[in-house]
Amino acid sequence: MRPWLSALASALRSFARPGRAVVKSVRTVAGSERPPGVASVSAARIALAVGAGALLVGAAARLGLAFAQGLPLAPAAAGVVATVAWAVARYAVLSVTRSGRPQVQADAVAYAWGRGSLPYAVAISGTARTAAFAASAVLTYRSLMSSGASRGKALAMCGWAFGAEAAAALAGWLVTNGLILLPLLG
Length: 186
What we know:
The chain is mainly alpha-helical. The N and C termini lie far apart (51 Å). It has six helices and no strands.
């Protein structure tokens, strides 16, 4: 067994016991279709904390994987900063688009964002980040729907929140590839 893999396995075993309580909380938040009393601040706060924790776990795993593979940490750190910045931006967009929709409570937005952030716990590669983005959109949409938002309003809120990130990623990809292709075109 490789030394870094055995060290990682040892570290995971040491975190397993206290981590079981966290996993139970994540399963509770991820598995419930309707938040237990969305109007209660505690349900929204728990979901928000678990979602933020999932982002941090994913960030630490991504940096740890880069370190274990001997890769430079700067690109991984830049990716982590971008992921966290977009998560914060999604929460802000969900909050802003909520205004004018009285049936969507602020606690429902917090719950939806927290539940939607859960897939980012395993987003350590490009493919996993893309899958986490799609899963996050679905979980956020379903959480908004289960919290009382109409189908159209939940779709509009998720469209603005996730559409902005998708558009920015597409624009960045086009600029990057355009700059690469520009010398070829003459």
